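re: that chain from earlier
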Amino acid sequence: MNNRVVAAGAVFDRGRLLAARRSAPPELAGRWELPGGKLEPGETGEQALVRELREELGVEACPLERVPGEWPLKPGYVLRVWTVRLVSGVPEPLEDHDELCWLGPDEIYSVDWLDQDLPAVAAAVRCLPDSAPVDVPGGAPADL
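^ sequence. v structure.
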């Protein structure tokens, strides 16, 4: 039996990574994850990610590269991660999340990531651009 894929976005902006705090289900509420969701039948990971980020965060996004690896979630599900560039909009917590935050390189592990997301976050952080400035106030996306 094939595992169902959950596509997540490592959304980077100005050297920071976007984290989303779960509001549901109760066993995940209050913990942080990379935003995204399950592929629908016939969707590619990139298509699912664009749809999920539009639904969950209210943004238009462009998946760039798949982060090497695949991580088990609950039985029957695996997590795949893509680096993502914001095209338009300011991320807002619309579905399944109650808070968002931008984390600089020295803040990545300052939030309580879901256990199953930790190895994916570590892999995504290796893709974090080194040359981008950090600690930019506001958290609005860069002009792209």
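The two ends are 41 Å apart (CA to CA).
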